[in-house]
Amino acid sequence: MRTVAAAILLTAFIAGPALAQDHVQRYREEIEKSPADQANEQRAQRAYQRAINSVPDQKPVDPWGIARSDNAPKAAPKAHAKSAAKTAAPKQAKPASASAN
Length: 101
What we know:
By secondary structure, the protein is mostly helical. Helices cover 53% and strands 0% of the residues. The protein has helices at residues 2-20, 35-54, 78-87, 96-100.
């Protein structure tokens, strides 16, 4: 019996403030705006557009530009890269102790 009473009391404490609100805007519900609010909104929109248009155009940023040099050779085609990888394999040197004997 006590748990039922505690549950009802808890529900009342939670639901009380929610039901006391005058109006909660629902999804896609339009709120009527006064002419002063509409004028303020239009003024803010014009100010935003002026601010956006006053920003100068910037060139694209290359974040790896510092790491690359401008005159670096272009990458070789894949067929050529495979044959270059085969020929560029380092040869293993003989150990120094074996050549001393």
